[in-house]
Each structure stands twice: as structure tokens, then as C-alpha cells.
Amino acid sequence: MLRLAVTTAAETFDRLCDPLAARDIAVEHLAVTGRAVDPAEPPDRRFDAGFVYPSRLMAGGVVDGRHGVPWVNGRAAVATSRNKAGTVARLARAGLPVPDTRVVSNPVDDDAVAAAAADLEFPVVVKPNSATRGTGIAKAHDLDSLLGLTDYTDLVHDFRATGDKSYLLQEYLPDARDYRLMVVDGTVVGGVERRLDRADRDVGAWKHNVHRGATAVAADVDDDLRDLAVETAEALGIDYLGVDVLVSEGRAVVSEANARPTIDDGKYDAGFWDRLAALIRRTAAEGE
Predict the structure, then answer these.
(1) Residue 288's pLDDT is what?
(2) What value does the mean pLDDT of the chain take?
(3) What are phi and psi of 241, to 5 degrees?
(4) Which fold does the domain 174-268 belong to in CATH?
């Protein structure tokens, strides 16, 4: 039985275990944090492959150095998808639709921020370049509120030693429908629509992240969106990818991509697990 190292202990780990065991792949947790190890000491377990590189890239380097396994989505794939501005640039270069975006890389003054926002209609979305789960995303309704938000961003950057001091100014798409399409080895294997309850919308909520209270509902998306998701994975060169698509006023854009997507329980096509197992086996074989 093939042994698969999984570094997340959250929902995705639990949802992987039984379906992959039924396909002769043993899922085992490999701790990345909350431990002290001798990096030169040989590991006590051997794995055939790893399931997506750890989110903490430096800690992942230790795991990678000790175990030397091939990854379904290695370090480069995770780093590529985490860089939101870089993703927008790659997709735009490939001719794929993306939100109108400006990237601001500190240090810049207020005039530079105002100039970057000049061609974007308010409200605009302010988004950290490398955060996840909707962390730090805000909406500015005018220039004063935008500069207030960027002042706060500057303070945070000064206080913490962060390697990425860039953020995005992005057009706000009103009443957008928010889809996450899962692509595995060049094929869309299902997707979800992330929805907010009416009560939340009535009090001004607008972020569709599940970790912020939205609900993921299985969605039967049309072929155009499926093609867009596949083209996104091809442009980024990532085999296992969650592609976030916003549809607003008849226009579809790729807002983000995630090389460490959460697996939503029971919301994918019938062939999802077979295709994922085949990708894991191919990854293991290529690493031999």
C-alpha cells in the first residue's frame, strides 16, 4: 500500500483517509509544527509521496529535507498560488480574465496610492498579497478610507518583520456569485458555490470565505467556467488546484487560485477520488 504524508490535521486530512484507503493509499499525518526535531536525524517513517507542500514554507523545507518525498503540489506550486498579484499577472499574460488590479509594494506615499486607485471605481477591495482565508481583506468606499487602510497596513509592516510588504487594490464586483472549482490533473472534478446568508448580507457582509461564515454548496457549473478553471491550472502549471471564479453582471473573472485547497465533503464528481488517487500514484512514481 502506498504511504502518503499529509501535513494538515484539519478537515482535509480526515476526508482523505477512507476514500484513499479504499484505493490502497494509506494516509498518515506528518507533523510540521508544534515539535522539536534534529534535522540531521533520519526520520522514523518512510513515505512514498506527500500531499501538498506545507503552508509554512520554511518548516516545509525541514520536512522536505528529512523525508525527500515528491509532492502533489510542491513548494513552487504553493508559493505561486500564494502570491495573488503574481497569479493575476500570470493569468493576464495568458489572456485569461482577472479583476482590474493594482499591486502596491511598500514603501510608497499617499500620492502613489491615490494614483494607483485613480482608474478604479470606488468601492475598491484592499487585499494582502499573500494572506489566506480572507484575512486582512477590506473594502474602501472613498480615497480617505483607502488611505486610512493603507496607513494601517504600513503600521503592521513596520511592527512585524514580514517578507512581503505588498498588497492589492482591486475592483469590487457587486453581487458576485463566488465559485470554487477543483481541478485535478487537467480536469474539473466538481465545484462549490460559496454563499452568504441573507441576514449576513443585510448587515453588510460581503466576503464569501467559508472560514468567514459563508456556506459551500455543491454547484453544477457550466462548461465555460470549467474551461476557465482548466486554463487557469495550465497557465499556473499546477496539477491540483482550487480556482476561485467570480461572476458579476455577466462577466466571469478568476479572483484567486489555491494550491492547498480544502476538500469539501461530498461535493465533487463521482470520479474525483479515482482521479486524485491516480495523481498521487503518478507523483510517487515520478519520484522513484
Answers:
(1) 67
(2) 87
(3) -145, 135
(4) D-amino Acid Aminotransferase; Chain A, domain 1 (3.30.470)
